[in-house]
Predict the structure.
Amino acid sequence: MKDVITTAQYIEHHLMHLAYNVKTGQWHDDGSFWVLNVDSLVMAWIVGFAFLFLFRHVAVRVTAGIPGKLQNFVESLLDFTTGLVKESFHGECALLAPLALTIFCWVFLMNFMDLLPVDLIPRLLGLFGVEHFKVVPTADPNMTFGISLGVFLLIVFYNFKIKGPKGVMKETLTFPFGPWLFPINIMFRLVEELVKPFSLSLRLFGNMFAGELIFVLVAAMLPWWVQWLPAGAWAIFHILIITIQAFILMMLTIVYLTMAHEQH
């Protein structure tokens, strides 16, 4: 592809999604609300089902004797996330530890797709007539915002479940400046709550999009026989980034849900 198009066209091509317009029924991104980035959804489903299948496989074959390496790995992840939840959260919530584990593993696997060669899957699918395909779901702001919106809805749900409508209203009107400055308190509360989904989504998207762009730039500007050196060095560093981003999203989820359970 790079032999027949310019560097700018190559980069632009790799940054375009496989988009489907639900309203018009066309495979075209016109920027409207009804456009689905099919590539992001497909890759998210694939890695999500892979994660569920792997953990289900270990769960049904768990042994109390001498566990295998895979069981040890899964148990280590479970102990790790459970320990983090216990350190931060002191109430009763059966959902929080499984949610934290799911977010960490799922987001890590979606981030990990960034380490695949940039042309591998697009070229394979190109043989079947697929023109555009981005393999990193978390480099799509729609996907990261969707994840953060799910967490945000849980925050709202537990705020009302634990504190009740009266408790939420009292907290909104009186914190942090007391009841006489309730207009300012309401403004602060709105900003505090609305910033949560944006902070969750944009941080993850920005880091993953930047990492993806660097791989595309290396592939676009250097000959294939030299690409492995800068791309390999960046991939080693990027392993740390994709792990940290999954960890941060998991930790912020724990912290936000812990705050939803606590009274000021």
Summary: Strands lie at 19-21, 35-37. The longest helix spans residues 182-221. The radius of gyration is 22 Å. The chain has a mean pLDDT of 91.
